[in-house]
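Consider today's protein:

***
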Amino acid sequence: MTLTGNLLIGQRAVPGSRDAIHAIDPATNQALEPAYAGGSGEHVAQACALAWAAFDVYRETSLEQRAHFLETIASEIEA
């Protein structure tokens, strides 16, 4: 996966519109690339609306399904 510095909102990569934010390597205290442009209030509102829309569906899943979902997210992050 190539990091682009875009925000991920829903299933879309969206360029931010605020000042750039860099992650910091804790071992060297150096800024990491790419920079991520901060999100606007509109970006936050979009993300919140999508989360709200998904809530009822997620709430109806079993605890086992939720655990599998979260474990899959963790595996993908580690990958």
